[in-house]
Design a protein that fits this description.
Largest sheet: 7 strands, mixed
Strand content: 15-25%
Distance between the termini: 34 Å
Number of strands: 7
Number of helices: 10
Radius of gyration: 18 Å
Order of helices and strands: HHEHEHEEHEHHHEHHE
CATH topology: Rossmann fold
């Protein structure tokens, strides 16, 4: 528990600095403190371009995502949508456009600075069909069977207890409703030295499970009809690979399908 609490505190402090623009963000938001970190990852392979999506509020986009789950979410007019780890409201504000005046979008984030800024944008633009809650994903202040859809963008990898998080997702979804999530997973076994360096520069990698473990938790929670819509490998800089891997390790890594991946997937609660 102490380790979980310590990790959450680190994440809160990190995201708080990003929200108040005291620290720049790159990729999934836990990395990019220095020049070397920017060289390790091709951060363009983390984030995606929202510019052409209706309802997009550029001011609320901190570049923290690793996909665009809303592209595959199937949001309908009148839906109640919950965004987990909503940050300053980027996906919330797009979803509000899709659900219309009869729908409702709820943003959940455990970082006070993020929620404060999200509410600032809500007031600034006069959005009426959105609400933000300061809360942890593992303990959401929402009723059972209350959401038509849950979305999340590169956040659950940072949650220490992913089983509890998916249990909460299952609890608040209506029977037959679904989630659509973009997240970071690992495929295969990364060379140990490389994994240690990746964890230093991007906390989202430190919290990532293998894809098999991730899917097993979702299935064990009770979700069905699980589909991976997109899988993209996060490219690592060749110079960094050479720096931290022996010649044999580099050759083995390049020949394998192992690596760090961004996936966008959905799953349905049983009817």
């Amino acid at each position: 528990m102490k380790n979980d609490d310590a990790l959450k505190q680190v994440v809160k402090e990190k995201y708080g600095r990003i929200a108040t623009q005291k620290e720049n963000s790159c990729g999934c938001g836990c990395g990019c403190n220095n020049a070397e970190s920017t060289q390790m990852f091709d951060y363009s392979s983390f984030s995606s371009d929202y510019n052409s999506i209706p309802g997009y509020v550029p001011e609320a986009d901190l570049g923290l995502g690793c996909g665009i789950p809303l592209e595959f979410a199937g949001i309908k007019s009148g839906d109640t949508v919950v965004d987990l780890g909503c940050g300053t409201g980027n996906d919330v504000f797009i979803a509000r456009k899709l659900v219309g005046d009869t729908g409702h979008v709820i943003g959940i984030d455990m970082t006070e600075e993020m929620i404060t800024k999200a509410n600032y944008f809500k007031t600034k633009f006069g959005f009426q069909n959105v609400d933000f809650h300061l809360a942890e994903i593992e303990k959401m202040p929402l009723d059972n069977n209350s959401a038509d859809l849950i979305v999340s963008n590169c956040v659950l990898n940072l949650v220490p207890d992913k089983r509890k998080a998916f249990t909460e997702i299952y609890r608040i979804l209506k029977p037959g409703a679904h989630f659509c999530i973009s997240d970071i997973v690992l495929k295969g076994k990364l060379p140990e030295n490389l994994k240690k360096q990746a964890e230093l520069y991007a906390g989202c990698v430190a919290g990532a499970l293998t894809q098999e473990e991730y899917l097993e938790i979702i299935k064990a929670t009770g979700f069905e009809k699980i589909v991976i819509h997109v899988s993209r490998q996060i490219q690592l800089s060749p110079s960094i690979l050479k720096k931290f891997l022996s010649a044999q390790e580099l050759q083995d890594y390049q020949k394998s399908d192992n690596g760090i991946f961004s996936i966008t997937l959905s799953g349905y609660k049983k009817s």
